[in-house]
Write a structure and sequence with these properties.
The complex is a heterodimer.
Chain A (H helix, E strand, L loop, with lengths): L3 E12 L2 E12 L3 E5 L6 H9 L6 E6 L2 E2 L10 E4 L11 H11 L4 H14 L15 H13 L5 E5 L7 H18 L2 E6 L2 H7 L2 E6 L2 E6 L1 H6 L4 H6 L4 E8 L2 E4 L3 E3 L11 E6 L5 E2 L5 E10 L3 E8 L6 E6 L9 E5 L6 E3 L3
Parallel strand pairs in A: 3-8, 3-9, 6-7, 7-8
Antiparallel strand pairs in A: 1-2, 1-4, 4-5, 9-10, 11-12, 11-14, 12-13, 14-20, 15-19, 16-17, 16-19, 17-18
Chain B lengths: L7 H21 L16 H8 L1 H35 L3 H12 L2 H14 L6 H26 L3 H8 L4 H29 L3 H6 L7 H9 L5 H30 L1
Helix pairs in contact in B: 1-11, 2-11, 3-6, 3-8, 3-10, 4-6, 6-8, 7-8, 8-11
Classes of the chains: A alpha+beta, B mainly alpha.
Chain lengths: 347, 256
């Protein structure tokens, strides 16, 4: 296991009555691609700005390579930020934009030129060095912003919603590009995003945040398969959430019956919420619940079927491969194995 | 071909109302006859007479001195004021007070300044006019630069800091260049307002060294001569040039 590069301990920040961050603790490892994921207003941007130095926590500590980071002024931190708006200097050419950080470090002119050319090649913008930012497309501007941030070889690169300003096709391209780059330059990346698919596809580990708190830190797969709480289960991907009382046979839901789920002995008798992913739900099985198909949405590779089950306030979602065998209004059986379900928020 | 609309008639009349006096003024400045009642043929003699007039020449020099000094001071103060207001306060009141001298009636400012100068026993002369013009010039520059600031992405300065620039380097290399069109437009505005400002200059001038508008005023008291028309035409040309350049620059401001 690699050493933690950044260690965030019990960081809190308030803006008036709003608690932007509440006792946030995180460790970011050397060389990893880390994502801060959450809905807008969850505090992820505040945390990013604290790392960059534009915001100060009310309490808590942040260290980089074991040394206190908070005492260092933003222009002295070995941390660079790629802004959501890219913040390219409009009165400078692409090359001057990229050279800006190196010139402030008093790097010799010849070396600056070399490193600018090198980084332009890395992001695939060779030949555009003399353009002004307003002469570039959105994707190209983003590459310049990225080049400007990585040319200083920071210990930590922060990316604020890096793909949000791009259209869908360019976004998919840049997603791959970012991953490749991170691999190539070996810099630790911290990306802030509200887009769970983006976080899942980019990051090695994700911290899910909500209302100023970190809900769960995990790799994408465990995060998806073993959400720690209701918020994470609902926020990451689609999920069927059903509340009931745990019994030795499963989850008892009034007017519906006993639903299959793991029932550890210490949980019996507690109220809990069962989470089952749509792709784990089987249609047309022998056992399970009976319902009426309310909606069928065909996505090409998969089909999402919504089934109304008497006693449940939300229809159950099931994802099946290819086209569905059931049609609108059909009666069908709905089932899943207890092992695929997750019990959350036991109380 | 576009259909003729009757709305062009009132529009044309309005423009005539606005610009006819100025057109007459310009034409009369080239009138060889010395009375506006008679056209004596095209002549530029009045311009020659004008440049030979010692009072006019000295007035022009005084005006340029005042305008240059007031513009320099207002540009620096107004820019700093605008940046400071944008960065350190959210007070709408401070904002309003900063630009108020730009919209206050001149006469109020003139009386106020004279009363103040008298109270602190300040000597009157070109320096007192210069300071007086700096008062409203600063307000105009601040207003123009504020507008420009609103168009500038605030994260540019943060990006500069993030890339290792000190606050001072950031101000010089990022903040000032992004504000430059606004600063230049504000300076041109302050300059063109200063060269033809009469009321405040009249109140705050000393017994010697009148500015050009004051010279004109004293000439006009004995009747409008075509020499004055020539002088007004020249001032008009200068003002137009400045206003157009300032407008061009502020348009540039929006496109960036």
């Amino acid at each position: 296991m690699s050493e933690p590069l950044v260690s965030i301990q019990a960081v809190s920040r308030r803006f008036g009555d709003i608690r932007a961050l509440e006792q946030v603790s995180l460790e970011i490892r050397q060389g990893e691609f880390f994502a801060l994921l959450g809905p807008s207003g969850c505090g992820k941007t505040t945390l990013l700005r604290i790392l960059a130095g534009f915001e100060h926590p009310d309490s808590g500590s942040v260290t980089l390579d074991g040394a206190d980071l908070l005492a260092v002024a933003p222009h002295r931190r070995p941390v660079n930020l790629m802004f959501q708006s890219y913040a390219l200097f409009p009165h400078m050419s692409v090359a001057t934009n990229i050279a800006y950080g190196l010139a402030r470090e008093r790097v010799p002119k010849g070396e600056i030129r070399e490193r600018v050319d090198e980084v332009l090649a890395t992001v695939g913008l060779t030949g555009l060095a003399r353009r002004r930012p307003h002469q570039l497309s959105g994707g190209q501007r983003q590459r310049v912003a990225l080049a400007r941030a990585i040319v200083k070889r920071p210990r930590l690169l922060l990316l604020d919603e890096p793909l949000s300003a791009l259209d869908k096709k360019v976004r998919a391209e840049m997603q791959l590009e970012l991953k490749r780059l991170q691999h190539e330059v070996g810099i630790t990346f911290v990306v802030v995003t509200h887009d769970q698919e983006e976080a899942m596809s980019l990051a090695d580990r994700i911290a899910v945040m909500s209302e100023g708190r970190v809900r769960q830190v995990d790799a994408p797969v465990p995060l998806y398969e073993r959400p720690a709480d209701l918020f994470v289960a609902d926020f990451i991907g689609a999920n069927n959430l059903i509340t009931g009382v745990v019994t030795p046979d499963g989850l008892r839901v009034p007017d519906v019956g006993v639903l299959p789920c793991p029932a550890p002995p210490d949980a019996v008798g507690a109220t809990a919420t069962l989470a089952i992913r749509p792709e784990r739900v089987r249609l047309g099985a022998d056992g399970g619940l009976t319902g009426v198909v309310r909606d069928v949405t065909f996505f090409g590779g998969t089909t999402r079927v919504a089934v109304d089950v008497a006693g449940l306030d939300r229809p159950l979602l099931a994802t099946v491969a290819g086209a569905a065998a059931v049609g609108l209004g059909d009666k069908t059986r709905v089932d899943w194995s207890g092992g695929d379900a997750v019990l959350l928020d036991r109380a | 071909m576009r259909r003729f609309s009757w709305l062009y008639v009132p529009a044309g009349l309005t423009y005539a109302f606005l610009y006819l006096p100025i057109v007459v003024l310009v034409i009369m400045s080239f009138n060889a006859a010395d009375t506006p009642y008679r056209w004596g043929g095209f002549d530029t003699a009045w311009y020659g007479r004008l440049f030979a007039d010692r009072a006019v020449r000295e007035g022009l020099i005084n005006t340029l001195l005042v305008a240059a000094g007031a513009t320099a001071l207002s540009t620096v103060l107004g820019t700093l004021l605008a940046v400071g207001l944008a960065r350190y306060t959210r007070s709408k009141l401070l904002d309003a007070i900063a630009v108020a001298p730009a919209v206050l009636p001149d006469i109020v400012l003139a009386i106020g300044l004279l009363a103040f100068y008298t109270a602190v026993q300040f000597t009157l002369g070109l320096h007192s006019i210069l300071l007086a013009h700096t008062v409203f010039g600063t307000a105009f520059v601040a207003a123009v630069v504020r507008t420009r600031l609103a168009h500038v992405d605030g994260s540019l300065e943060e990006a500069s800091r993030d890339l290792g620039a000190t606050p001072l380097q950031t101000f010089v290399r990022i903040t000032l260049p992004s504000l430059a069109p606004g600063i230049i437009a504000g300076a041109l505005l302050a300059f063109s307002l200063s060269i033809d400002e009469f009321v405040i200059a009249f109140f705050t001038a000393g017994p010697q060294d009148p500015t050009l508008p004051i010279v004109i005023y004293s000439m006009v008291r004995f009747g409008v001569t075509p020499e004055i028309n020539a002088l007004a035409t020249l001032l008009l040309a200068v003002s137009f040039t400045f206003v157009i350049v300032a407008q061009r620059l502020s348009r540039l401001t929006e496109s960036l």
